[in-house]
């Protein structure tokens, strides 16, 4: 069984590599011009070759890629804010009817969410840097994979997997359910990772060449022979196999309850498994701008240091081009120059305009111009800002929706599974007694999610403007608007901290306090009025007989 499983994984790996070979050629061209540190699609780069960028003459695409990754991170998973909440939408009462979520369950979901963010952004988790690296690969190659693993003590650990060493397959619903990662470990690392399971040839190499590298495959896919009655890895939904090329051996088998590789794809064409990224879309422009820059450099050098035309070959053998150099014999007796620069007739403004047009197309593909909308016009009104955010949300919705579905959704489920298995989650409330596996929904609260809700904010602001206009001739119309609810919804859309607003319970208590204060003032006013009447009566002698 062990050898047959290893052979099955290796055969599937060979088939996947053959099928993706044409795409690897395109990705290699992209990497050589945009992301030179990942030029491993058609061969391993090592030593000085890994630092070369001989095909990069213009930095527009590399800079645009960095801005793209930073913008995606700030819109989707900002480090300084909570970019999602947990919820349970299909909550039912004892008679299996939809019901309001109990307060205890809501509080528990909030505690779980806080625990999740604390573990995700812990010092050793490395989420922020690895997520950013995943977005970089997504912009360059259209595909990115983020692996989440557990560490001792119940913590989380993230690793961005380069696309060059990742292959995957879909199930019948179009979801990525099988991932192959082909990578290298040194002989020393093999012994640390697999111990006695390390092939004999690698163990021998560890004695003489501990830093020599050997390839292996980590395969994660659905477990077709799962025994659901078991609680160990044989009863888990996903199987994990480590397979060595040396000896074609299965090194280790284990399992996961959820998919640990969160795979993101930028856009996909029909009948394609792998995605296409912005750099692939404008690869022709990236090649063009590099050639244009080469031409511009040559033209500038010819203008700055043009070839010299001499009247007679060998006439000025000691001609000097250094600053303030003295060249005797370069003028005739009548003052005519005997040396002239060659006029190449170059038009630098036209050349620069062509380069800038190509750069603009590249920046548009990487969404650089889109993300600059709010930055370039900071003096806009609140309504204008909301309209710009609405436009941005509409343009980004297709791509970002895919990232939320394919990357963040599976990632959160894997994180919750790891933390639950380690006993790191808060204790469930009594309302959830009997639920072994609680499936939660995810409410995204990132700047992107708020931008997608901006159309609602625009509608609210326009409603307030209309109410103010109608209220000029009919003041009762303004009373139709629920002020606290309107302000609360606008604060949610804009992403204002919830702690700045009073809760509905606090508002009710405040209303009762205001009402009590009003009643007290009425009583005091009435008492003061009665005292005044009594004083006036006494002054008039009406109370003397009493």
Question: Which properties best describe this structure?
Answer:
single chain, 546 residues, alpha+beta, 3-stranded antiparallel β-sheet, 16 helices, 48% helix
Provide a brief overview of the structure:
The protein is built from 16 helices and twelve strands. The chain has 546 residues and is an alpha+beta fold.
The description of the largest β-sheet is:
5 strands, antiparallel
Rg value:
35 Å
Count of runs of 4 or more consecutive helical residues: 16
Number of strands: 12
Give average pLDDT, whole number.
Answer: 82
Kindly report how far apart the N and C termini lie.
114 Å
Given helix and strand content, the structural type is alpha+beta
Order of strands across the widest beta sheet?
4-5-6-7-8
Uncertain runs: none
Please give the share of residues in helix: 40-55%
Q: How much strand content do the residues show?
A: 5-15%
SSE pattern, N- to C-terminal? HHEHHEEEEHHEEEEHHEEHHHHEHHHH
How does the overall form come out from the CA principal axes?
flat
Notes on the structure:
The chain is of the alpha+beta class. Among the domains are: 2-44 and 51-56 and 121-283, no CATH class; 502-531. The chain is 48% helix and 14% strand. The protein has 16 helices and 12 strands. The chain has helices at 2-33, 60-76, 103-120, 127-141, 187-194, 200-208, 278-281, 283-304, 348-365, 368-371, 373-376, 382-421, 447-452, 454-471, 483-494, 504-539; strands spanning 84-87, 143-150, 156-161, 166-170, 176-186, 213-222, 238-244, 249-256, 261-265, 308-310, 339-341, 441-444. The strands form 4 sheets. The chain has a 5-stranded antiparallel β-sheet. Helix 8 runs antiparallel to helix 9. The longest helix is centred in the last third of the chain and has 40 residues, at 382-421. The model has no long low-confidence stretch (mean pLDDT 82).
């Amino acid at each position: 069984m062990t050898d047959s499983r290893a052979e099955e994984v290796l055969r599937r790996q060979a088939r996947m590599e053959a099928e993706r070979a044409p795409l690897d050629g395109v990705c290699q061209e992209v990497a050589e011009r945009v992301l030179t540190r990942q030029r491993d699609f058609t061969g391993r780069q090592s030593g000085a070759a890994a630092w070369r960028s001989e095909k990069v003459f213009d930095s527009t695409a590399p800079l645009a890629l960095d801005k793209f990754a930073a913008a995606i991170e700030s819109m989707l998973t900002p480090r300084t804010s909570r970019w999602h909440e947990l919820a349970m939408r299909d909550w039912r009462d004892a008679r299996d009817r939809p019901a309001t979520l109990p307060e205890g369950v809501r509080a528990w979901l909030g505690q779980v969410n806080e625990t999740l963010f604390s573990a995700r952004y812990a010092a050793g988790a490395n989420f922020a840097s690895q997520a950013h690296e995943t977005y970089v690969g997504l912009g360059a190659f259209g595909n990115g994979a983020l692996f989440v693993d557990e560490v001792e003590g119940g913590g989380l650990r993230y690793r961005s997997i380069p696309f060059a060493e990742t292959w995957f397959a879909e199930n019948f619903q179009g979801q990525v359910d099988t991932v192959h990662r082909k990578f290298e470990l040194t002989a020393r690392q093999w012994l640390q990772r697999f111990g006695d399971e390390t092939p004999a040839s690698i163990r021998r190499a560890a004695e003489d060449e501990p830093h020599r590298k050997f390839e292996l495959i980590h395969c994660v896919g659905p477990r077709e022979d799962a025994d659901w009655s078991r609680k160990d890895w044989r009863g888990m939904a996903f199987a994990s196999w480590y397979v060595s090329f040396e000896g074609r051996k299965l090194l280790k088998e284990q399992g996961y309850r959820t998919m640990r590789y969160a795979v993101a794809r930028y856009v996909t064409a029909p009948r394609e498994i792998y995605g296409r990224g912005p750099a692939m879309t404008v690869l022709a422009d990236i090649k063009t701008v590099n050639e244009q820059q080469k031409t511009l450099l040559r033209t500038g050098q010819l203008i700055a240091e043009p070839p010299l035309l001499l009247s007679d070959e060998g006439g000025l053998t000691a001609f000097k081009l250094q600053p303030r150099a003295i060249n005797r014999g370069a003028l005739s007796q009548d003052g005519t120059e005997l040396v002239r620069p060659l006029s190449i007739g170059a038009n630098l403004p036209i050349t620069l305009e062509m380069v800038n047009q190509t750069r603009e197309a590249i920046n548009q593909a990487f969404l650089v111009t889109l993300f600059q909308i709010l930055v370039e016009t900071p003096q806009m009104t609140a309504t204008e800002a909301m309209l710009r955010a609405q436009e941005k949300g509409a343009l980004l919705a297709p791509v970002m929706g895919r990232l939320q579905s394919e990357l963040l959704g599976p990632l959160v489920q894997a994180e919750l599974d790891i933390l639950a298995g380690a006993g790191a989650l808060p204790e469930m409330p009594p309302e959830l007694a009997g639920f072994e596996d609680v499936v939660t929904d995810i409410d995204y609260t990132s700047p992107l999610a708020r931008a997608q809700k901006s159309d609602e904010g625009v509608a609210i602001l326009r409603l307030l403007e209309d109410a103010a206009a109608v209220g000029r001739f009919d003041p009762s119309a303004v009373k139709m608007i629920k002020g606290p609810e309107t302000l609360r919804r606008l604060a949610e859309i804009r992403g204002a901290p919830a702690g700045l607003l009073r809760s509905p319970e606090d508002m009710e208590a405040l209303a009762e306090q205001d009402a009590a204060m009003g009643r007290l003032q009425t009583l005091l006013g009435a008492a003061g009025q009665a005292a005044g009447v009594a004083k006036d009566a006494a002054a008039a002698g009406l109370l003397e007989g009493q």
